[in-house]
Amino acid sequence: MPPDTPIILTRRADFLAANRGLRVARRGFVLLAHPNDGKGTRYGITVTKKIGNAVVRNRMKRRFRALLRDALPARGLADHDLVLIGREGGVERDFGDLHRELARALEKAALGQGDPPRSRSGRHRGKPKPGQRSGGQGSAGQRSSGQGSSGQGSAGQPSSGRAK
């Protein structure tokens, strides 16, 4: 393999490290670029289940691999890890548009002109941390209808589960 051939990222730690780097968002994808201390040009592709079923995700990954095969030898950043994250509109976008978007994103990354960091406000990611409330319900997660957990109303008869 020639020394300038890009290497594929496979380790989760490398993807997480790239997430700490520069972020350039485009309509069809987000490009992450992070220096890798002389390990050469490496790339990875991520397409989540939010994008579609396995057929759709695999099609998007094939398109991204073809884009990177064309663009990285000429425009790739030396000694950087590059990760393409698929976005919802990316699979339907014209291949030429994606190619131009990737070229522009690589130029911006080379100049160090990333997009501003994402704000975390208003977004809930994953499970709440211990001691953190999940919101939505009371502190113990019970209904506030005044009934106990027995499912019976105040007269000892089964309730319909609705507050009266």
From TrEMBL:
GO biological process terms, semicolon-separated: tRNA 5'-leader removal
Molecular function in Gene Ontology: 3'-tRNA processing endoribonuclease activity; ribonuclease P activity; tRNA binding
Annotated Low complexity bias: 155-164
Enzyme Commission number(s): 3.1.26.5
Catalytic activity annotation: Endonucleolytic cleavage of RNA, removing 5'-extranucleotides from tRNA precursor
GO annotations of cellular component type: ribonuclease P complex
Keywords, alphabetical: Endonuclease, Hydrolase, Nuclease, RNA-binding, tRNA processing
Alphabetical list of InterPro entries matching this protein: Ribosomal_Su5_D2-typ_SF, Ribsml_uS5_D2-typ_fold_subgr, RNase_P
Region named Disordered: 106-164
Alphabetical list of Pfam families matching this protein: Ribonuclease_P
Function as written in the Swiss-Prot or TrEMBL entry: RNaseP catalyzes the removal of the 5'-leader sequence from pre-tRNA to produce the mature 5'-terminus. It can also cleave other RNA substrates such as 4.5S RNA. The protein component plays an auxiliary but essential role in vivo by binding to the 5'-leader sequence and broadening the substrate specificity of the ribozyme.
PANTHER family: RIBONUCLEASE P PROTEIN COMPONENT
Name of the protein in question: Ribonuclease P protein component
Organism of this sequence: Allopontixanthobacter confluentis
